Amino acid sequence: MTHRPTEEPARPVRPHPVDTAWSGAPPEPGEVDPAVLGALLRRHGWQRRGGAPGRYGRWTPPGPGGSGTSLLVPESRAFPDSDDLLGEALLALSRSGSPSAREVLVSLAVPSDEIRWWHDVPAGPGGAAPWTVEDRLRTAARRMLLAAALATRARAGYHGARHRRAAAASLENVLVGSAADGRLTAFVPVAAGRPLAVRLHQALHAAREAIDYQRATGGMDAFDAAVEAGVSHELTEALVALVRGTEGARIAVEWAPAAGVPEGCAPSAEPVEFSPGDLPVLREAGARYQHEEPAVPVRITGAVVRMRRSGPRGEGTVRLRVLAGADVPHVRITLDQEAYRIAGHAHLVGLPVRVQGRLESRGGFRRLTGAHGVVPVQVDDAERDRLMKELHENLDFFEEACGGDCGD
């Protein structure tokens, strides 16, 4: 019955299909907008090298070996041969060994906003980089995505354990490519993940502006306003993880051509840059967010999953699995002797309890202080049967924890 500390990264997001050879059939020409295909080719480094103006463009892939391959991509469907040209271009992409070709095909199949991270790491002997560099880049990117997902659910300087399950679940559809040459790309499907991409875009710019303001004036006031844009302790910690040990890092959010630009966002923006000189300000802001986030008054309904006290009488500590009232998975509560006895009775008969108190930010919103009003709560038969099953699985532990007092 343990839970993840807030300092740990989110569960890894799924690897993107571009990590493996493209094995699916190319999209049907009738399903592809020529303008979207052209925009994706340009985004992924392909070069337009002529073509009939107004009819089609000739595109070659990035890299030194690109001159031997080219695609003819129509600019619109205004001409009779447009579908034929599209079909030939898509077939050529599916047969290409270029990673960028596979990225374009997958982006056509799953319209996605793309988030890119770059970090500049000093090269080792022979230009090689330590094997840990890629892992650090992936870890920082995951933490940044989780921070953005948390900010789509609530504006807070410090989220702690709140909303983490829902935020982590929202990353299940995010696809991530391979990290190479200090670059990593995440593909966030527009249908389910655009709010995350928008929030990260806004938060990164707000964080950059707040850092610049602090370095110019010495004041941290801009970080208070930046919370509304999605900046938080979690985001500053992710930025520290991204920049630490590098000569600098950049993050860019590029919108899916098929979906257009979200309201209030720039059509195209330069990457947001952070440097090692920003680290002291980011660390100060993160500590400030964590220290100043207030406690939250709550009324929680939860199932008792652990009870402990030092003797057969007196106060004891109870751990609840939260069913309602707070967006955290578990809380710990210190109860007086009577409230502890009520909690023990409720668990023995398969009932959750309801309790009021203040959810403290210290420790990540995992502790309820000032607990009072502990009462059992009636539940339906299915939930009660499940709680009773948990009791029987842990019966020896609870008998020891109650010290013979729960049944008095």
From TrEMBL:
<feature type="compositionally biased region" description="Basic and acidic residues">
    <location>
        <begin position="1"/>
        <end position="11"/>
    </location>
</feature>
<protein>
    <submittedName>
        <fullName>Uncharacterized protein</fullName>
    </submittedName>
</protein>
<feature type="region of interest" description="Disordered">
    <location>
        <begin position="1"/>
        <end position="33"/>
    </location>
</feature>
<feature type="region of interest" description="Disordered">
    <location>
        <begin position="49"/>
        <end position="68"/>
    </location>
</feature>
